[in-house]
Structure formats: C-alpha cells, structure tokens
Prior knowledge:
- It is a single chain.
- By secondary structure, the protein is an alpha+beta fold.
- It is 38% helix and 20% strand.
- Strands 1, 4, 6, 7, 8, 11, 12, 13, 20, 21 and 22 form an eleven-stranded mixed sheet that branches. Strands 2-3-10-9 form a four-stranded mixed sheet, with no helix packed on it. A four-stranded antiparallel sheet has the order 14-15-19-18, with helices on both faces.
- Helix 3 packs antiparallel against helix 4 (252-275), helix 12 (487-495) runs antiparallel to helix 13 (501-517) and helix 17 (576-589) packs across helix 20 (619-635).
- The relative contact order is 0.10.
Amino acid sequence: MSSRVGSSTNAPGIKVGIEIHQQLDTASKLFCACPTVLREDPPNYSVKRRLKPTTSEMGDVDSAALFESVKQKSFTYEAYEDTVCLVELDEEPPHDMNGEAVQVALTVALMANMTPVDEIHVMRKIVIDGSNTTGFQRTAKVAFGGFIMDGSERITIQSLCLEEDAARKVSEEREGITYRLDRLGIPLVEITTGPDMHSGEQAARVALSIGRLLRSTGKVKFGLGAIRQDLNVSVEGGARIEVKGVQELGLIPSVVEMEAQRQIALLEIREELRRRGVSEVRSDPADLTATFRSTSSKVLRKAIDGGGRVFGARLAGFAGLLKRELQPGRRLGTELSDRAKTYAGVGGIFHSDELPGYGITAGELEAAAKALNAGEGDAIILVAAPLEACEAAIRAAVARAAEALVGVPSEVRSANADGTSRFMRPMPGSARMYPETDVPSIVVSSERLEAIRAALPEPLDAKAERYVREYGLSRDLASLIADSPHSPAFERLVKEDSVPAPFVASTFEYTFKMLKREGADVDSLDKEQIREVLIMSSRGALAKEAVPEVLRWLASNKGKGVTDAIASLSLAGTDESLVRSAVEAAVSENIDLVMREGERAVSPLMGDLMKKFRGKVDGRMIHSLLKEEIARRLATK
C-alpha cells in the first residue's frame, strides 16, 4: 500500500456508513411459496429476455437504470421446477408478503431500538442489470430511527427494509449474462447505518455487532453470500462513494482505507489541475486508424485487421497525472479505462503516461499527439475497437477525465478481493423507486409490537453466559456455539436427547471445522442424521472416535443413511467381552512394562489397543478395562 496517504484512520473527516443485507432463513420466499434453498445440480429449464428502463411516476428515468440499458445485454435465466415458480419468472403477480419474514424484520427492528412504521408498503426499486426478471426489486420500509452502541459511542440505524434477494449470476459474456433464479425472492433485511464511523476498524466492529444481533434471532442464513456489506465512504472535501459486495468482515478495514486513499489522491489531482489552469475538459474523438496502419502493437493490429478503428482524444493539461496512483496497482488512467470498459465493452485504453510501450513506438505516439494537437503538457488516450465501441469508449473516458476537475465523482463501485475497488455504475437517484400496486400493505398494530417485544430473542452474549452456567462449557466454546448456526441443534440435543453438552459443542465447532478444512461438505449434512450420529455415540452404540469418519462418509454419500455409513466403514460395535480379552492379552504380553511402570503403563498400552479398536469401541471403555486389569495384576504380584 502506498505510504503517501497513510492509514484511513488519519484521513481528514472520514465518514463511513454500512448497509448490511442479510438473507432470512424462512420456510418460503418473500412473495411466493417456493422454498429458500440454493441448488448446484443442473437446472430444469431456462428462458432468455431483454430488459429496458421505464419512467417513474414523475416521468423521469433513473440514471443508473439508463446506464445499464445502453449495454444492450440479453439475460438467460436458469430455473428449477421445485424452487422457482411463475412469480420469479414474472409471469404471475406476487403473492402476499411472507408473514414469517415480516415478523423477523420487526423483531430485528425492536432489538435495534427502532421505530416500526404504522403500515408496511411495498415499493419497486428499478434494477435492470438483469438480476431481477421484473426489472425491479420489491422492497418495503419496516422501521427507522434506531441505534446500537459501539462501546460508549452511539451508532445510528437509519432504516430497516425487508426486500427480495436478486438472482445469482452464473456467468457473463460480452453479449449477455446468465442468472439462476433459485435465489431470486429469498427474503432479506437491509439495515442502513448513519455515517457515524470514522475508521475501517470501527466499521468492521459495527458490522460484526449488527451481524450478531441478526444471528440472535435464529432466523438468518449462514454461508458465503448469505450476508453482504456495502460501505458508504467519504473524506473531507470528497463525496459519498458506495462500495458494494464486501462479503468478508476482515476486508472492511482495507476497503475503507483504500477508498479514503483514492479520494485524497483525487482531491490532490484536482488541485494540481487547478494550478495548471485547467478549467474544462472538452475533446472530440478523432479517428487515428491511418496513423497506426503499420503498427506492431498486437492490440491495435488485431483491431485494425478485424475491421475496427483506433480512436484517440487529447486531455489538455493532464500530462503525468494519468499515472498517479490512487490505490495499490490502480491509477487515474485505470479509472478512465474502467469507464471505457463499462460503457463500451472494450478491453481498455492506452494513455500517453504509459507510452511508448505495448508495441506502440515513440514515433507513433508523436504522430498521434500531433494529429490530436496535443502539446507537451497534455495527455492523450487511445482505444482500439469496432467503430461504435471506439466512439463510446473515448467519450466515456473523456467524461471521467472531466470529473477530475470536480475531485471525487459520487458513484457506485465494486469491491475487489484486495480491498481496492472499480467503477460499477452511477449513483442512483430518486426516480428509482415507485409503489408496488400488486401487494397489499400490512398494518403494524401496537398489539403485535408488544407481543414481539415480550418475546425478543436472547442476546448472544447472554446465551454464551448461560451455556457456561447451565452446561459447564468453557467460555471460548460457549461463545463459539452461541454464535453458531448449530446453536438450536445444540440445545435440542442437550435438553431433549441428553447428549453431553461439551461433546455436542465440540463436534459442531471443532470437528465440523476440521472436516471443512479437509474439503468435506458438512454444511449440506442432513440435520436429523447429525442428531442420530451424536445420540448413538453418547449411548455407546458408536465410538466417539468414529464420529468424524461417519460424518465425512455421509457428506460424500448423499442419500445414504447412518447405518449405511457404519456398515461401509466396518464400524459395527464390538462386544465388551472381546475387548476385555484383548486388554488381558495386551497386559500379559507387556507384563514386564506393567510391573515396572505400574499405572503409568496405561498410556503406551492404550495406544496399541486404540489402533486395533478405533471407531468400533469407545476409548473410555478401553481405558477403564485397561486400568482395571493392570490394577488386578499389580495386586497379585
């Protein structure tokens, strides 16, 4: 990371807000009865469509929707017969809103000290990137004006909305995008904080606190993509930038720091342009194909030989600024290139701060500059593509250069895996929202709120303390299982099935994680099968040492049962008399060791016996019989 800017914590006037999107684990989707499960097997069918923007009730077209429409992409939607219906395909009106999801949303609102609305109305939010077959996302404001505490600091919770999740992207090509509809319609809550945080570390803490509050309901989904964080970041003199798609909590500090770094660098570039006397950026694209007719540049050669063109434009006063680093590995020239890619679908641009290079010679660069009337203090940009794409790409790049005079253009960006970000689309405006007329409103009565308030879920910290107190778990293990998706199963096994709490908790939190690291798909294990395995082990029908083997086998053999696993792994229990005979034989074979070491001989003999009976006999039985036999031999010596 560049040391020129330093940590975001020290950036002037940094403000951070968070939008958290959490999928709810309800029995059905938000506007139909389809289950909320994701599938990985091949879909049953697909449909292909195109979308176009519509005007709002005020006659306006949202800028973000218009931006998406100019791409002219087609969209293919893959579907399953048992998890997708006509509602997701936009062939049938939505059903009434899922009452279970509304109840969860109101519960979260009260836990976050919010004021629920008197009546919940569904709105349509225009989204035409193809992720919604309708061209909009249905969303409903549920509550506003709450807060949570970050230490002694109060963090505002501005709003809580209940909305339908979008379809998930499967693949993308230049001509179109393929989505899968199993995720479309899964209920999720969107929680928006105020811009009250002043560092990435604080934003990560607050995101964790909100996530834990959501998990305490026991009604949220877990796993990659089930919770997503968008960050709103600004520095003094900058602008609000929304960085979308931050899926890992650990990435939040880096995203905030690098966005602060980017904005500060852009403000510095603005001041440099002012010092140079640059007051406007105006440049018409020029066809430079003839200039590069004999070029050795592979990129330009491929475009020209394919019937394309090479276009260029002059950026007056920009010499040396396009190579100015904004984020690690990303420069002002990268920002221009991102705009060209996004608006015109080209592979990128060349600019004079990085030339000669890429096969473009100094002579060709000089000839292009001359053709564009570019002087020593100017920069030039080049793009090679089909004619229409060339013109669109150059205009988009020049428009982004003009925004450098403003400093930081307000926009939506997409987070990269390293904490940097790239342009995604313009910031949406008020024309994006309009009422949904197909879904009736829901009155939120005071009686309903009081009933929810009287039965609010137990906070996770309080749950962990209870697990320590009631079940004798260590604090670390209690915190892990309280914060885990397996918490309800843990309580059921301990309370209803009398399985020892430490064994259950350690299986979920330690054994499962070990198996995951090995690549076992334990998340897809049937809950009743897990329960059966743990009950059998606690009652001596299955050795504890065999539990990981059985779970691993079940994860790899979908549709098979626990008895199948035991048979396949040859883990049928061994009669105690056979174990006793093996113990007696082991002691006899090692009688000199026993007489010399006494009870200390248990440990080495235990290892040999466990190798013989691993997975078939509980280690506690072997240990007990071994101690008993050694004590008997010592008493008769």
